[in-house]
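BUG: 3D viewer hangs when loading the predicted structure for this chain

Environment: internal workstation, default settings.
Expected: structure renders.
Actual: progress bar stalls at 90%.

Input used:
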Amino acid sequence: MPVYHEVDAGNAERNHTSVEPIDWVPVPVSKLTNRSFGIKVVGDSMEPTISHGSVVVVDPNQKSIIDGKVFVIEIPYVGATIKRVFVKYPNLILKADNPSYEEQTIPLEKLETNGLRIIGRVIAVFSYDI
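Structure tokens produced before the viewer hung:
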């Protein structure tokens, strides 16, 4: 599975855009969809669920919000982040698993008007030294 550059599991401030994979890692076929890809995680906001240095498998086909599931979200002018997502109308709540991080509240209208983008749902987590 291709692994792309880091995505922040912290405050989404250290992200880089990469079109070419930085590495390839073996993943059980049962965990993959036809468009799955991996992203290396930087930061501790999703610990203990997702640790710094882990690789998350992202399914870009799953963009519909399911309360409490983990998604990769791209926030305009900030970057991509990994968070547990909840809909509390009229807002989207991004919550870290690490209690030392505050939740982020984003108006749902930004999904359509300001470029907030759901990259995909995290469907698996692997610890690899890449």
